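Run folding on both entries below.
>entry_1
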Amino acid sequence: MLILPLHRRMTLANAPMVTLTLILLNCLVYFALQSGDDRVLGQALDYYAQSDLGRTEFPAYQDWLLEHADNEDSDLRLQSMQTAPARLKVALIESDQAFLTDLRAGLVIEPGSEHYADWHAKRVEFDRIRDSAFTSRHALRFSGVEPGRMAWAMFMHGGLEHLIGNMVFLLILGLLVEGALGPWWFLGLYLAGGFGASFTTLAWHWGDEGFALGASGAIAALMGAYCVIWGLRRVRVFYWFFVVFDYVRVPALVLLPFWLGWQLLNLWLNPDAGIGFDAHAGGIIAGAGLAVVLRRYNGIRGNFVEEDERAEKRDGHALAYTQALEHIGRLEISQARVLLERIDADEPGQLHILIALYRCTRYGGTPAQIDTAVTRVLTFPATDEATIREIRDIWTDYLKACSGLPRIPAPVLLRLVNPLLRIRADADVDALLRAIGKAKPDLPALASAWFAFSLRAPEASTQRRERLTYLAEHFAHSEFAPKARFLLQQNA
């Protein structure tokens, strides 16, 4: 069974730098430090052949298998020991931890036998050469609590497929969990979860021969943490169960019993599979527990976790907006208004929604509704020329609707002057100021606006003369009228 949360794309903005660093470290350990293991193993096998250890151990192993042939695996091993090449026979011996335990305890080749001393010396030397490999020196051993080995084991792998599989999971889960926790809390959870997985492995295998390695325990901690962090929020996951695969949206917390249950089920049904189901289960529990603590003490970035809901809401709003425009096109104004008002309530302050609402009132609203809708558009904070031009188009349309006599407050209209001047729409400013003059001729700020507008025109130009003349005639009692007359005389 494969279940992966796939609801966030990685970009330069949200790239999980600690996760990427961990992936790099895992690759460096495998390709640089573990790469010499095959050479060391070859040396050990060469010594095994040269020392003629097989003459003693091969028949001893066959006799031991005959005594312990209680399952199909023992039968297969016994058949292989009779026909396989020498190096494969050595591999069979070294992979049978039960036999090695009895061998080292003196239960197979007894200390009192004639060849024991010679065999024992050669076996010790073979073990020394084999155990000098990097993996043997640093992998987690079941025989004791060694923090150094527990730390190294989190960055080691048993093969290329093992490495690639773990790194894919680390990248997918790391993107989500690191984004939710931040780099340092994420790193702490990853390492603590890895140690938790290692302690679980030691508890499960205590006293056994053998070792464990791999990042999967720490990655499993990310799985447990992910479920707790996202909680009951619905997330998009990919699942693959035998030949059935698809995407589905489920509450993240629902994944926790599936992930944990799958590990426990395999630990029960496949104890000899050679996969660290015990470490996976321990990691999931450790990660989930740590995430509960982080949630309790506000260690989770709510903005990052909630981004999926916001994106889903934006997608829903985009669809509703498209439907509203279709309704407007068919003059189904009431249906369009319902959709637009819902969007505006959920996510206020969007110019395209305000414009669409204005269109609704323009086609089917009262003068008061039109004034309210256009006021919201005209007071929208314009930060770029494209936005200003959209607002100007609505202003122009409104002027037509009110026959050149705007009904909205004059101070609101004056706020349009600077944005329109920014896009060099002097003709629109002229019309705007004249419209304000008709509606509110005694507005104190109007004379000042006219004077500033007049000075924008080149000296001695027709535009400057016309604007100054308008100012002197219509605002004769203002402080700017004498200035206007003086400038007119200077350019006469």
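>entry_2
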Amino acid sequence: MALQVIEPKIRGFICTNAHPTGCLKNVRSQIDLAKKDIESTENTPNVLVIGASTGYGLASRIALTWGYGTNTIGIFFERPPSGNKTGSTGYYNSAAFHQMATQDGFTAISINGDAFSDQIKQKTIDEIQEHFGQIDLVVYSLASPRRIHPKTGIDHQSVLKPVGDSCTEKTVDLTNENIIDITIHPATDEEIANTIAVMGGEDLEFWIEALLSENLLAPQANIVAYSYIGPKITDQIYSSGTIGLAKIDLEKRVNAIDTRLLDQINGHAYLSVNKAVISQASAAIPIVPLYISILNRIMDTKDLNEKPIDQMIRLFSEYLGPNLVPIVDENRRIRMDDRELRSDVVAEVNEKWSLVNNENFHDLADFEGYKRSFRNLFGFEVEGVDYDQPIETEVTIPLV
């Protein structure tokens, strides 16, 4: 037993602990949104979610399980609790997912390890062969700052920098909560290459090659990888920056995978461009927290805002669900960011962005909501949780 009172350890965009009860309630609330009457079918779909413990990956797993009754195998790399140290938020999310999936009678298998590695790919193959036979859908939702290349052993680390020219723009200092101007110098060629190696599409290609070589993708199986483009405000640091080049690489490889799948199994690969959401990854990107704070206030006012679970419910009910042919743009992208980039939303964001300063910051941006949502990610400030109550931190996941 490891009963303790847990207080958040947060500095800027980093939180080093998590609250199991808060994470449990977060997962339960997502499940409540995803639940619907599931029609029994002779063949239950089998889904592999790579990056399954937080954000869009977790939301995908929940939406598919409680919305469609799918069997899932989830891959994640999370820190279990140890002594007085709590587990990571993704660890507690996954424990909560398993607890409720078991209660509701769903089949779920989880593997905790480095999805970039050949070892975890082989372990996943073994589990699919033993329990599922073939996979009908692969969801690729990895977000990592580093990747040890499985072939070369090189430790690639990504950077969040502009390309070509320096970038000077407004941002919010997450420690002092002041609006400041920040100048970010351009990435070197080596930094660009490293970021593409981590966040590009090579690893997805390795996954698909491994699955195809073992005949583990069912006829007409689909692949969906998640990406982001964003508005002009974040262009220099995001879509035209190092991370944007990595996402371009991902998209090129998704299109190449689509051609191969169509030829071999009559399947498809898609890129889903999702909405900007609050996450530990997005909080680390300069400019983005201020942008999201302004964006959320406007989208909330227009009743347009979506959390990851809302986006994933919409993705699978309108685009990638059973018997659906996805509607894509001219570049074959599924545009889940359609509401974020609606012309009236963009116009209002641009107007408030031009005006925002330290005096009007809290009037134009919902930074209090941003902070609350950020803490919610780690199970803190969740409604209905008694944070003065000592709780058990030693939670287990039935890992294979």
